Amino acid sequence: xxxxADPRTSQVVxxxxxxxxxxxxxxxxANNLEDLRAxxxxxxxxxxxxxxxHIVLDPADPTSVGRTVxxxxxxxxxxxxxxxxxxxxxxxxxxxxxxxxxxxxxEPEVPHEAGxxxxxxxxxxxxxxxxxxxxxxDCCYAGRASPDMAAQASAADAVADRAxxxxxxxxxxxxxxxxxxxxxxxxxxxxxxxxxxVVRAGLPGGEPLLTMDTIWREVRRELLASxxxxxxxxxRNEGSSIPLVRNAAVRGPDLAGAILVAGPAxxxxxxxxxxxxxxxxxxxxxxxxxxxxxxxxxxxxxxxxWRELIGEPAVVRDGGPIARDGFIAVGVLRxxxxxxxxxxxxxxxxxxxxxxxxxxxxxxxxxxxxxxSGYLGWGPGELEAYLDAEVLVLTDHPPSAVLxxxxxxxxxxxxxx
Length: 417
Fold this sequence. Notes:
The chain is α+β, with helices and mostly antiparallel strands. The protein contains ten helices and 21 strands. The protein folds into two domains: 7-246, Rossmann fold; 259-413, VC0467-like (3-Layer(aba) Sandwich). The protein starts with 10 loop residues before the first strand and ends with a helix.
């Protein structure tokens, strides 16, 4: 399965025009850009870093827009995605039939004088080092479709054909000899409104990742049902299979409290022959501790009261490479014990104890406590990917197995859950 692009090495450019000197205003475009930025930055959907998203609203000249796209294209990593989005009026140059993305000063009779030629976007995008490239155009003609396109193809087909880029997925909204569909008083234009709905809400019963093809088909279905024109999709080299975001309607099992062991595909030294306890798992990622890490004696900073609570073995285990200068106390509550203050449940009666807790107050609350230094962390979807690739394997060990005196036994007695 194709994985989601790495947001840390991806770049997004959102271009829009809300006001025009010679064309009708499109005030909803500003909301299009801001809400797309928020959706793509949501760690539950993708987690694009703020610095990797560039909003260009009502630009005064096409040169600055072209420069922004070029710089973004060059900054994309091999595992990243370049996404360029434009919302506004789309015009066809009457002289040569090329697509012009209208900027505020654009005149319909001479769109090339103040507009952004799509050719600039095409060239910059095709020069990107990233292997995934997506272009989304929410624009229309303004009665300037050339005769050859009008006779042989729909308006949307004409835009797609003229804007096509190698190894890129191009999604265009329906377009005709009228302004883009922007219902009066609506927060978004019709096309981007449906695009945002799918991205943010997901599709129940769908795959874990929403590809461009899946998004297009759902957006098209809803737009046609609402009486709008049909959006079109063009691709090269299976560009339609590019995943854009996670499917928000598909939620996997919460693995907090689960014990995982290194699988046959584990080559990372931090995971080699390791058993792990997942402390937190949600759409933003996961945190876990290594149960089989190297053990050393409790440092002197632990009081006698804490040592009595911890009992034997009185050791600190290496929980992972992150924040090794701190300690994590994990304990299992007795069945009859009340949940103490500063106790964060993980699953059932297993949880994390704040080391600021007075040990005398919880002396009889726990069947056992273990101390770890450092932890392991995974970004959104990474732990799931490790399980899919058998880097890690889910076991049926109960959470209380964290108290095992010999954690290495978890590797030999585990069974796939």
